[in-house]
Design goal:
Shape of chain A: elongated
Number of helices of chain B: 12
CATH superfamily of the domain at 77-262 in chain B: MetI-like
CATH class of the domain at 77-262 in chain B: Mainly Alpha
Largest sheet of chain A: 10 strands, mixed
Radius of gyration of chain B: 24 Å
Helix content of chain A: 25-40%
Low-confidence stretches of chain B: none
Radius of gyration of chain A: 28 Å
Order of helices and strands of chain A: HEHEHEHEEHEHEHEEHEHH
Oligomer: heterodimer
Strand content of chain A: 15-25%
Distance between the termini of chain B: 49 Å
Number of strands of chain A: 10
Structural class of chain A: alpha/beta
Largest sheet of chain B: 2 strands, antiparallel
Structural class of chain B: mainly alpha
CATH architecture of the domain at 77-262 in chain B: Orthogonal Bundle
Largest interface: A-B, 51 and 46 residues
Amino acid sequence: MQRTIVRVQKIEHEEEERGIKSMKKILSVILAASLMAASLCACGGNKSASSSAPGSLSGTIQISGSSALQPLAQAAADKFKETNPDVSVTVNAGGSGTGLQNVSDKTVDIGDSDVYAEEKLSPDKAKSLVDHIVCVVGVAVVANSQTGVSNVTKQQLADIFTGKITNWKKVGGKDQKIVIINRPKSSGTRALFQKYALGGKEENTGKSLMEDNSGTLRQNVAQTSGSIAYIAFSYLNDSVKPLSVDNVQPTYENIYSGKYNIWGYEHMYTNGQPSALCKAFLDYMQSKNFAKTITEKGYGLYSEMKVKRSAPGK
Amino acid sequence: MKLKREKLKKEYLGRTAVTLAGLFIIVLTLAIGAFLFYKGTATFTSDHHTVAEFLFSSDWEPAQQGSGGKVGAAIFIVGSIIISAFALLIATPFSIAAALFMAEISPSAGRRILQPAVEIFVGIPSVVYGWVGLTVLVPFLAKIFNLAYGYSVLAGAIVLAVMISPTITSIAADAIRSVPNEYREASYGLGSTRWQMIYRVVIPAAMPGILTGVVLGLARAFGEALAVAMVIGKMQAFPKNLLSPTTNITAEITASMGNTAEGSEWNNALWAMALLLLIISFLFIVIIRLIGKKGADKT
């Protein structure tokens, strides 16, 4: 009798322990599941920009889009936070197309783009976006440092990229095959290059390599002999040789004066007029205080431009 | 009384939580498949292109706005197939040999050295493979074959082979280890040498598992984006030979997705390619299950 009671108590005790352990396991599973569900709900979250008292800004700004503009946007976000500690600015890349789409859908507050919205979105979607030009970016033709060429004429440039000239010796360099490393056809930089450097001529796609990422592209040009490509001024360094076109060096002075015409505006689009917070941020980016950062990072100042362009169809 | 209530709690609470979690995973997978199907078929329903044009034409010129472009994805599909096939050709002999070494020839060294090495390899992110391929393999190929550049099908195949061989090796090793010892004893009993035992008894017996590993490796090779994109040159043309550059589905999606806006013909065409990748992956899984069933039937 005594032994049975002890055994029943032992069994009850063991079962209680097991019960507690499995309760813990079940609780952790339920907790994990509810966490996942809660995070899904939180996804739609805080994307509205708000300002409370005048003089003290607070809220969040979401920016996405062009990877060419991302370094500058991130620098602006960091500097803006120094004077407005209650504001949080998140900068993502993803490409001009993504940025335009996101701001059109109102998933972000500001969409960065290397091209005019009219070139990527349908006309009615582009109509609701407001353009803010924050800087200018120049596009330089770069070649591998071993080609022996430092200048090409506009005509030679067009002939190289359309495939008429295939050897560097025809433009004064070594006897080396020209290897073109292009951008994807959907790239805004390519559209810019085609319009202003090649005069609208169609590039030879089936015979050129392709790379979209500017960093990888620079690496490819540096290590492939005979290669030629085009990248933004902000990516130039000693590993590749920038070529002058018609004896005009790729510098911002030449862009400002209008001598070098391979450049584009960097746009920040908002859906409709910007909110007070976004307007403060955009004003900061276009202000004189930020101009030094713009030139430091390898971009050009819109205020210095003596030539202007307008959106297609305007 | 207390026992019965506890049993109820343990039984039903546990089962409900687990069932919900399982259902969630199933719903998620189905949702992804349905979403891809919906976005991928937009090319055929709203832009009015035919499946035949998509699969067999090599004219890839989608319009960024409006429609009226061409969506022939043949170059990308052929590129993906060729690079994956060659990667498999290179990787399979080495992987099976490594698996045999790990499981049969030297199990102790296998367990202590090769197994951890293989597991480390599986964990290396693919962008590292791509970067090493770009900075080391591509110039090397250019030098020994005396080419203008080393971006080629061969470079892509080698990088992919290195990436998928740990997968094939570990699955093949498991398959070989699970061959019952009685088979080996029986083979020795009939007077075979060790090599005869391996290639006449063990490998045929482990074949379903080895084939599973091979198909999994192929599926991984097919879906690999970053590593392969960095070394194949992404030239939009059919490769002339093993040493010429080409492009593949994943490289094109990676390069162009961010530049296009949703709803445009180009974006829809990229979604269609993504859908194609999903369908091919499902095909591989179906093949694996068929092999597994055939293997189970044999034993």
